[in-house]
């Protein structure tokens, strides 16, 4: 998950993820769906999966079907991505929305990438990489939770989600099959977290690209035109590594430039120079390769 920022807030309440969260003064709650809150200060008690699950509607476990698992996954459809909440984006995307478009992006990999990657595994990774947020929530840098603690929570959640207790089998002969499926989901999630394999590096780039694309789309659809400037997220483009994905990102940032130019706002919005530098750098790189015949 690419780093996002939560709403600026005041006044605290206790959240399901065991942290003190706040409610916005200047912004009303998101109109789309309810969310699992994030923390603005360290938790008063250690976070645990069981503490979160105990606050949810009870769901039978050890069934012969994966219904308990599916019920928890539904939370990904109803938990907004925190990075946009501060900007009061109407009907902002959910975690599931983000992962869905990421999965489609993996299927569109250009031949130069598709020929050297396991695209089916990349698609699976895109669909699994934020699965832990169904219980952990979309933790952001402003939540005051360390990377180590965030990783601990997410790993514990994945251990829980991918166990046979939720995936089905019910202790019968199918339990071994469900264990294998769960282990596969857990392994592909860990592969993404480790970020070492070519497939994981590609999906990390896709994660960043999807954010930049969504940023531009929110700016473009805002009413009145030019009322939403999300340029503080442009920096994410600079962390994209693969040349093919840098090409796609440059195209998105060029679209953004044209949008703001059309409003007579070029050079005024956040991230303008950073975006221009990214596009110009890629264009110089492309010209150099063309001259060298590479």
Structure explained in plain terms:
The chain is mostly helical and 294 residues long. Helix content is 52%, strand content 3%. It has 12 helices and 2 strands. The chain has helices spanning 49-54, 67-78, 95-107, 111-114, 119-128, 133-136, 147-161, 164-167, 175-194, 198-221, 243-262, 272-292; strands at residues 10-14, 20-23. Strands 1-2 form a two-stranded antiparallel ribbon. A hairpin with a 5-residue loop joins β1 (10-14) and β2. 38% of the residues are buried. Mean pLDDT is 84; it is low at 3-35 and 37-41.
Strand content: under 5%
Work out the oligomeric state of the chains in this entry.
Answer: single chain
- Distance separating the two termini: 33 Å
Give the overall shape, derived from the CA principal axes.
globular
Structural class, from helix and strand content?
A: mainly alpha
Radius of gyration (Å):
21 Å
Order of helices and strands: EEHHHHHHHHHHHH
Strand order of the largest sheet: 1-2
Mean pLDDT: 84
Strand elements, count: 2
Helix content estimate: 40-55%
| Uncertain ranges | 3-35, 37-41
Biggest sheet overview: 2 strands, antiparallel
Total DSSP helices: 12
């Amino acid at each position: 998950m690419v780093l996002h920022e939560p709403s600026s807030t005041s006044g605290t309440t206790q959240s399901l993820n065991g942290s003190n969260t706040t409610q916005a003064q200047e912004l009303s709650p998101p109109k789309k769906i309810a969310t699992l809150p994030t923390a603005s200060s360290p938790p008063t008690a250690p976070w645990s999966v069981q503490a979160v699950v105990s606050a949810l509607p009870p769901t039978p476990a050890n069934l012969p079907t994966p219904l308990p698992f599916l019920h928890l996954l539904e939370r990904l459809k109803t938990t907004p991505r925190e990075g946009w909440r501060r900007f009061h984006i109407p009907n902002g995307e959910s975690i599931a929305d983000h992962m869905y478009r990421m999965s489609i992006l993996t299927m569109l990999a250009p031949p130069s990438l598709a020929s050297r990657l396991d695209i089916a595994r990349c698609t699976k990774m895109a669909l699994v990489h934020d699965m832990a947020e169904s219980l952990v929530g979309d933790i952001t840098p402003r939540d005051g939770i360390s990377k180590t603690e965030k990783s601990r929570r997410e790993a514990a959640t994945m251990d829980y989600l991918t166990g046979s207790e939720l995936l089905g089998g019910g202790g019968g002969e199918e339990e071994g099959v469900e264990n294998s499926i769960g282990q596969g989901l857990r392994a592909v999630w860990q592969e993404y977290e480790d970020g070492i394999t070519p497939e994981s590096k590609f999906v990390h780039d896709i994660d960043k690209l999807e954010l930049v694309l969504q940023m531009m789309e929110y700016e473009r659809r805002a009413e009145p035109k030019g009322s939403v400037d999300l340029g503080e997220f442009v920096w994410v483009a600079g962390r994209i590594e693969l040349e093919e994905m840098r090409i796609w990102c440059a195209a998105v940032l060029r679209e953004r430039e044209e949008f703001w130019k059309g409003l007579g706002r070029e050079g005024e919005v956040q991230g303008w120079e950073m975006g221009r530098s990214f596009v110009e750098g890629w264009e110089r790189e492309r010209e150099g390769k063309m001259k060298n015949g590479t």
